Amino acid sequence: MIIWGIFWGAVLGSWFGGYGDFGPFVGGILGFFAGLSLRWAIRSAIRTELQAHATKAAAQPTRAPQAAVAEDPPVAEAPVAQGLVPQPPSPPPTTNHNPQDADDAFWTGELTPQGLPRIPASAPVAARADAPIPPAVPRKTAQPAQPNAVELAVLAAKNWLLGGNTIVRVGLVILFIGLSFLARYAASAGLLPVEFRLAAVAAVGIALLVVGFRKRADKPGFALALQGGGVAVMYLTVFAAFRLYGLLPPLWAFGLMIAVCAASCALALLQDSRALAVAAFAGGFAAPILLSTGQGSHVGLFSYYTLLNLAILFIAHKRSWRVLNAVGFVATFGVATAWGALKYVPDHYASTQPFLAGFVLIYLATAILYARNTPTKLGKTVDSMLVFGTPLVGFGLQAGLVQPFELGAAFSALAFAAVYLLTATVLVRRAQASWRLLSECFIAIGVGFATLAVPLALDAQWTSAVWALEGAGAFWVGMRQARWMPRAFGLVLQGVAMLVFMSGVDGGGLQVSSLPLANPAFIGALLIALPALLLAWWLRQPLPHSGSAWAQGYARVEVLLPNPAYLYGFVFWCLAWWLEITRRVPGLEQGQWPVPVFSGRVAELLGMLAVVLSAALSMVLGLRTRWAVATWPARATIGVLALGFVAQVVDGHRVLATPAWAVWPVVLALHGWMLWQTDRWQAAGTEGTPAQSAPRFGWFHAATAWLVTLLLADCLWSGIGKAELWRTSWAGVVLLVSAIAVLMLLALWAGRGNQPAARAALPWPLNPHAEAYYWLAALPLAVLVFGGALLAAVHSSGHTAPLPYIPLLNPTDLTLALALGGLVFWRRVLLAALPPPARSGGVTGRHALVALALLSFIVINTVWLRVAHHFFGVRWDASALFGSFVVQTGYAILWTLLALSLMVLAHRRAQRPLWLVGAGLLGVVVVKLLVIDLSNAGGAERIIAFIAVGVLMLVVGYFAPLPPKSQPKAAAPAEPAARPLAPSQPETLP
Q1: Buried b (16+ CB within 10 A) or exposed e, 103-118
Q2: What is the pLDDT of residue 48?
Q3: Number of other residues whose CB lies within 10 A of the CB of residue 959
Q4: Handedness of CA 548, 551, 557, 563 (dihedral sign)
Q5: pLDDT tens for each residue of 680-698
Q6: What is the mean pLDDT of the chain?
Q7: pLDDT confidence of 880, banded at 50, 70, 90?
């Protein structure tokens, strides 16, 4: 390599006249360092691989001879004379059959095949029989610091110059430079004709070859050095005769260089010299470039390179010379790339395609032959440059050749995939474990090209579909072979397929196709979903692996993937149907926009139905296979139904409209069936005990009750719309009425199961979800009823058109009465519950009772406001109502009546706190009379207010005096705790 670098440096130096006679000398020095660096790079790559194999081999434990003796059965001890223990004779030195023999060591710096200096084996040391054997203590050796690039270059130069026959090497360099000076001097002085000078230089080269060949047996290192110098001189002579002096025509010069190359190759094979072969082929590959005039044919160039590569293939069949393979690979594809970039036109395709295919096949075979001839303890050696570089560089050139052709790159990728997969199949059928690594590399390359062919030929949807199927296939292969890398590749390919598919979907998810179900969007999404579901099925149980550290790390991730993989597949299954539902067909006329198959309202309903049906099918699959994750989509249907309802309301559609009235019963029935199957599933203890699962699944039942409330309100709104009552009080209480109805239904229906004994006798779903209905589902409804009643009481004017307004019998007053009754009844159901629901103290405590009393007070007051609005003509706004003396007079009388009622009730029940509340309200009436009503001078309202309040206060004083304070009781035996109230039992205040 270094000799060849000196030669090329001298050639280049002779081309540039800036250095005069020193041009070849300067070029030779630069060539020396170039060859040195190239040799260092190649040797570093070889050394790294061999050291890695040596480290693995050294890591395997070896048995000491003493251990083998210790394991033998004990025998009778024989007397042993004191002295040296006899040792077995050392084995005779074996002949080294490694292709890198002594003459190659001359060119490689005297390195062993492992890339390390040769260490002589130590002679066996005699041991005394009575000497104790010390225990083996592991030594901790520090790793030496790795030298940097500069140190490695200096070391390599030192090894070449001082290793082996240093004098010969220095002499060759000096001789080469001297010949160059002699040729320059003779030319400048005109001493001899140029033909004679070139003939003399050629004679020196031939003499070096002859002498070196004759000394090959006596001094192989010296002989190879002479022959290498002779080859360099012959190449230089032919080049000078053609390029510098024009003494040879191109064809003759080309033939002479071929002859030099052939002779050098023959000498290399005859003497088993890798370095000489590298020098010969380097000159052979450089000959067309050095002798080119720019007018030659590419067919002749590539034909010549084909012959050289066939010669390299022949040598690879006999020798494992990796450097020679690298020289041929770099030279062939480097020149081909340069020619393609500078000279190729589409008209050259037919004359260049066969050569490119031949080059790829030659170096594919070379990689196989190199692996066959280089066995190791770990199997056949893989030359990564030939194995991976050949397809990468070859396909790059192939893509440039077929660029003008449609789908040319796709078919080329398929051809590469077929070649490598077929080769891998042949290697696998050899049934030899040593070929496993190479066959796996070829399989990976073939699969990679097959994967690459898809996007080169198809659009995003089809590409993602094929990649998803390919990922499933790779995962299946890895599962069958207990290998983690194909499984990881399959999972990664699934994710890439998803990204590619989503990038090809329109912003709105709408696809234009006239074919139902047979369009790229539907099939693409479906072919992503099905492999994902299949992967989830395979991942249910932990899969075997090789047990390596990487495999164990991957296995820890893989066990987390079954459930996400199934949900991922289910989502894409639903997405496939959504894309089909939202499909558009092309317009009938040119330039017309695509027309959707279904309208927006129908598409929303069909999408909701498709998701719910898919969840039901998944539930069936989970029940039949006892696959827990397959039952999970059923739990998300309540969210899908709620989303469908919201989308329907936003678009202005109603539940009772066509075709919603036919879809909603179906999806609700399916949802109820899935709730039932989910409860059966958890009752069987599949996901924990029923006691643990009931509260978690109870939320789905509660959410169903909320959805029913919204659906009932939507039905009532439909009736309001058809009757055109949007501007009346009928429309204002629709949602409140539906909430009251569902709240009462839950209290009556689920309240029967507010105690464990009663609940056990009830059917599903009250057993076990009664509490979920009368507490979880009813609590938000109760809050809605309370807030809705407060808002309706304050804001509703009681407009009942087309019916006349009747106090207490209009929609507003009736709804408020129902709201109060429903809240009271629901609260009593909670008071009777055993055990009471968690965190229900805020509803069953005294604060909730006070809130109900305040709501009742507001409702009663607003009844009078509506009466004043309709019968006395008071305008319905806050300022007009507050400023009306009719309203104020009515308030005075109404509050006095309320106070009278409270005080009479408190007197009869002897509840002093309740009587004080009535007295406080009566006091407020007196203050109101003095502050507000007294200002109405001369008004009849003031007279009526004072007289009525005075009379009612007399009645209070007569019928409801202040109850006496309760006397403190003496110590008495503790009474048993009071039983819970029944829903119909009255509640008293202390």
Answers
A1: bbbbbbbbbeeebeee
A2: 63
A3: 12
A4: negative
A5: 887 776 555 454 555 567 8
A6: 75
A7: confident
Q: Which residues is 584 bridged to in the sheet?
A: 512, 596
Residue pLDDT, tens place only, 48-65: 667 766 666 665 554 444
Report d(CA 117, CA 122) in Å as an integer.
15
CA-based angle 405:407:409, to the nearest 5? 85
For 880, the token pair is: 């007009």
DSSP string computed for 403-464: TTSTTHHHHHHHHHHHHHHHHHHHHHHT--GGGHHHHHHHHHHHHHHHHHHHHHHS-HHHHH
pLDDT reported for residue 962? 62
What phi, psi does 595 have (nearest 5°)?
-110, 130
Chain Cα centroid distance, residue 549: 22
Q: Retrieve residue 369's tokens.
A: 């032959």
DSSP secondary structure letters along 270-333: HHT-HHHHHHHHHHHHHHHHHT--S---HHHHHHHHHHHHHHHHHHHHH---HHHHHHHHHHHH
The tens digit of pLDDT for each residue in 378-393 reads: 667 778 788 888 888 8
Q: Which of 905, 887, 786 is nearest to 843 (CA)?
A: 786
CA distance 635 to 675: 8
| Residue partners of 508: CB distance under 8 A and separation at least 6 | 582
Whether the CB-CB separation of 214 and 62 falls below 8 Å is answered with no
Query: Which position has the higher pLDDT, 109 or 476?
Result: 476
- Residue in the block written with tokens 């970039």: 341
State the Cα–Cα distance between residues 811 and 803, nearest whole angstrom.
10
Burial of 483 (0-12, 13-18, 19+ CB in 10 A): middle
Give pLDDT tens digits for 944-987.
767 766 676 667 666 666 666 655 544 444 444 444 445 445 55
pLDDT of residue 19 exceeding 70 = no
Write out the DSSP string of 799-836: --TTSPP-TTSSHHHHHHHHHHHHHHHHHHHHHT-SSP
pLDDT at 668: 94
53 C-beta neighbours (distance < 10 Å), count: 14
The pLDDT value recorded for residue 556 is 92
Cα angle vertex 779, ends 777, 781, to 5°?
A: 80
Two structure tokens written together for 69: 């003796």
The stretch 573-596 carries a mean pLDDT of: 84
Selected residue with higher pLDDT from 4 and 524:
524
What is the Cα–Cα distance from 287 to 303, expressed in whole angstroms? Answer: 14
Q: How many other CB atoms are there within 10 angstroms of residue 409's CB atom?
A: 21
CB 868 within 8 A of CB 836: no
- Note the pLDDT of residue 559: 92
The pLDDT assigned to 101 comes to 40
- C-alpha 513: how far from chain center: 30
Nearest Cα residue to 100 out of 153, 151, 47: 47
* Residue 234 burial (CB count, 10 A): 25
CA pair distance 925, 936, nearest whole angstrom:
16
> 487 and 475 in contact (C-beta within 8 Å)?
yes
User: CA 25 → CA 142, 154, 169, 181, 232, distances in Å?
Assistant: 45, 21, 16, 9, 15
| CA 627 – CA 623 distance, rounded (Å) | 7
Nearest to 231 by CA among 460, 495, 3: 3
- Contact present, 785 and 745 (Cβ < 8 Å): no
Q: Judge whether 832 and 980 are in contact, CB under 8 Å.
A: yes
Cis amide linkage into residue 961, ω under 30° from 0 = no
d(CA 553, CA 347): 54
Please give the Cα distance from 937 to 947 (Å, whole number).
15
Indicate the SS3 state at residue 927.
Answer: helix
- Residue-wise pLDDT for 819-848, tens only, equals 999 999 999 999 888 888 888 888 888 888
Which amino acid is present at 840?
A: S
- Output the pTM of the full model: 0.60
- Which DSSP state fits 741? H
User: Residue 553 and residue 152: Cα distance in Å, rounded?
Assistant: 37
In 3-state terms, what secondary structure has residue 685? Answer: coil
